Amino acid sequence: MPGFPPGLVGALREARRVVALTGAGISAESGVPTFRDAQAGLWARYDPRELATPEAFEHDPELVWKWYAWRRGLVERARPNAGHAALAELERAAPVFSLVTQNVDGLHREAGSENVVELHGNIRRSRCPAEGLTVEPDEAGHAPPPCPNCGSPLRPDVVWFGEALPAAEIEAASGAARSCDLFLSVGTSGLVYPAAALPYEALENGATVVEINPERTPLSAHAGFSLRGKAGEVLPPLVGAAFG
Ligand code: APR
After folding, report:
1. pTM, full prediction
2. Of the candidates 137, 157, 156, 140, which has an alpha carbon nearest to the alpha carbon of residue 148?
3. What is the pLDDT of residues 21-38, one digit of tens each?
4. How many other C-beta atoms lie within 10 A of the C-beta of residue 222?
5. Who has greater pLDDT, 138 or 52?
6. 82 within ligand 1 shell (Cβ under 6 A)
7. What pLDDT, on the 0 to 100 scale, is given for residue 46?
8. What is the spatial distance between Cα 223 and Cα 226, in angstroms, rounded to a whole number?
9. Best residue for ligand 1 mutational test, from 51, 169, 188 (most atoms within 8 Å of Cβ)
10. How far apart are CA 56 and CA 69, in angstroms?
11. What are the structural domains, with CATH classification, of the chain?
């Protein structure tokens, strides 16, 4: 077990309101590729940042749908890892806990987390862009399949680059960040706003901010504790030391 800096374990144990913000890094150990990883096989020549946009879907819905179908396949085969499990355990131990994730893979709920705010949607769901409703496609052979209610081509229920985040989710995340005593930032590069602003909202409220990431990020210099390591290796002993 790594030694933790003095004060960290006690701060986690004593915090009454805890928020964890997660990004693609927490799913890396489950084998889910991030947008910034090189893509495999068929998709290697595409830049994900150019496929995950409303313009790309308008221009070539079939291509974008098929890319998401491929990513959904990867996500459905992935299993939560020790980092996800440790955050589910932290939720059971902390008096008030919110998990805010930028990930669309659904792995936090699969690991047992309950109070989960999905800022960027969920890749396992589809949405009718005409009606704004989450729907279950029933003609899986089509790319994209038609909405069972109105026939419009369905889209994945995720937030694309250039799109606004769902208002209720960002409000819940921001409210939790502004009222917490301890804020964990795990596996996120801190480059994509508004999620990247959340730890600073917590800092302004006087919260202890703890970062877990193998690499330095723009948040590292501001966090009270910045731990260099993998989520699946750092979180289980940290939660264990505070509550085990
Ligand atoms: N444990 C913890 N952190 C890790 C691990 C690991 N095992 N492996 C990688 N990381 C870190 C990387 O060092 C990097 O800082 O995870 C971070 C991943 O960064 P991004 O790929 O930028 O992911 P994220 O911050 O979630 O991106 C935000 O941008 O790609 C879009 O919409 C997408 O939700 C995503 C958003």
Report:
1. 0.95
2. 137
3. 999 999 999 999 877 776
4. 14
5. 52
6. no
7. 87
8. 6
9. 188
10. 15
11. 8-32+80-120+165-243 (3.40.50.1220), 38-77+125-158 (3.30.1600.10)
H or E stretch covering 204: helix 198-204
pLDDT tens digits for range 185-244: 999 999 999 999 999 999 999 999 999 999 999 999 999 999 999 999 999 999 999 998
The pair of three-digit structure tokens given for residue 96, joined into one six-digit string? 């008030």
Confidence of residue 137 (pLDDT cuts 50, 70, 90): confident
Cβ atoms 138, 148 nearer than 8 A: yes
What pLDDT is stored for residue 1 in this prediction? 47
Evaluate if residue 78 carries a pLDDT over 60. Answer: yes
Amino acid identity at 36: R
C-beta 214 within 6 A of ligand 1: yes
Residues in a beta bridge with 97: 18
Q: At 240, which amino acid appears?
A: G
Provide the pairing of β-strand 155-158 with 133-135: unpaired
pLDDT at 2 over 70: no
DSSP classification of residue 180: -
| Separation CA 120–CA 11 (nearest Å) | 29
CA distances in angstroms from 48 to 136, 143, 144, 188, listed in the order given: 25, 18, 18, 17
Q: Is 209:116 a contact under the CB 8 Å cutoff?
A: no
pLDDT band at 133 (very low <50, low <70, confident <90, very high): very high
Q: Nearest residue CA, atom 35 of ligand 1? A: 102
Does the Cβ of 78 fall within 6 Å of ligand 1?
no
* Residue 192 contacts residue 102 (beta carbons within 8 Å): yes
- In the numeric block, the tokens 């260099």 are attached to 228
